[in-house]
Every structure is written in structure tokens, then in C-alpha cells.
Design goal:
Blueprint (H helix, E strand, L loop, with lengths): L14 H19 L6 H14 L4 E2 L27 E3 L7 E10 L3 E9 L4 E7 L17 E8 L1 E2 L21 E10 L2 E8 L5 E6 L4 E7 L1
Parallel strand pairs: 3-7
Antiparallel strand pairs: 1-3, 2-5, 3-4, 4-11, 5-6, 6-9, 8-9, 10-11
Amino acid sequence: MSPTPAPRPGTAWHPRVIAGAAVLICGLTQAACGTATPSSSAQTTSAQESGAQNTEETGSARPGTPTPRPPGETTAQVPAPTSTAAVDVPHEGREQALVTGVRYGRHDTFDRVVIDFRGELPGYTARWVNKVQQEGSGDPVDLGGRACLHLLLTHADAHTEDGTPTWTGGPVPASLTTVKDVVKTGDFEGRVGIALLATERRPFRIREYTGPDRLVIDVAH
């Protein structure tokens, strides 16, 4: 192709010549600089996905470790608890379980507390109470003016055979909405007490999972 001659003084460029030059410059620029910056809508989607990942539970036992979700579960698929009724599941005849840690996470409509075990899941009760006594001594537990969802694990320990504690209680992440503290209220003769201190009495539920063995307690916002 012959080069386009420069216009003589006082002569305007023909529109087709201007358009062809613009296309040529645009093509050369893209080839030199690579792919263009993603659109604002793509950036927004990426930020939303990143935020969703940040809702994974973490815990005091293994800081930053994601809590395994039940198979196929996502936050959007799990409704908030609807009942405040007490729960009593005995699990008689099982081997002694060992509490290895407690983890926490905030979801859209509930706070989640996950109790990890080594060994078979123990029996447990859970109910809202006005006062709690320390397992063994019977001394009153200071609830700090909070509502208390008290769990009692039976055929369970929170210490090793030499007496070393495997879990001592809280702290709870500040990101939680309803659950403000988790206190160990005893570890005596196969009975482990755990108090979930909350802003008020709210519906809750407890579910059992294995692999790893754990109890999942959800408390509604």
C-alpha cells in the first residue's frame, strides 16, 4: 500500500483517511499493551465473591482454619433457627470423647459455634438458663448479665490423661452478632459444661457431623 501523502497547506484530511488512521493506531496500541482492564461490573463480581469467602468460620483452636461445611451446604441455603426449645440427646454407651477445640463464624442470619471432638460424639443437653453452676465445685458462674445457652456434654473430657486442658474457653470474634462469649463451666468426671453468652435468648439448633466429629450450634441473630 502506498503511503498516504501529507496534505498541502490549507487542505483538510478526507474523513475516510482519518478513520483508517484511527483504526491502525488503535490496533497497534492493543498489540503493545495487551488485554484491557476488566469492566467495573467484573470487578464488583470479584469483590462479592471475595467477601463471600470471608464468611467461613474460624476458631480459637486453629486460628484461620476454615470450618468444614456439611456436604453441599452454602450460607444461602441454610435458614435461621426457629426454636428456643431445650435439646436432650443422651448417646449412651459411647466411648469418652475429647473436646479438642471450639470454632466460630458469623452467617447472614445466625452465629455458628462448632465444637470439635476426638472420639465418638458425646451425649449433650442444651437450654437457655438464668444461672449456671460450675461442674464439680457447684460455685456460681458469672454470666456477666448475658443470656446463657448452656450445653452439658456427657461422657466427654476437655483435658488429657495428665490433666492438660485441651480447651479453656473463648475468646469469641467481635464479628459475631448474638454470641458474645463462650465460657467453659466445668470439666469434671466426664461432664464438660459450655456456656454460650448472648445478647438475648434467641432460637437455636444443634446438628451432629462426622469427618471430623463435631457439634454445630447455630444461634439466630
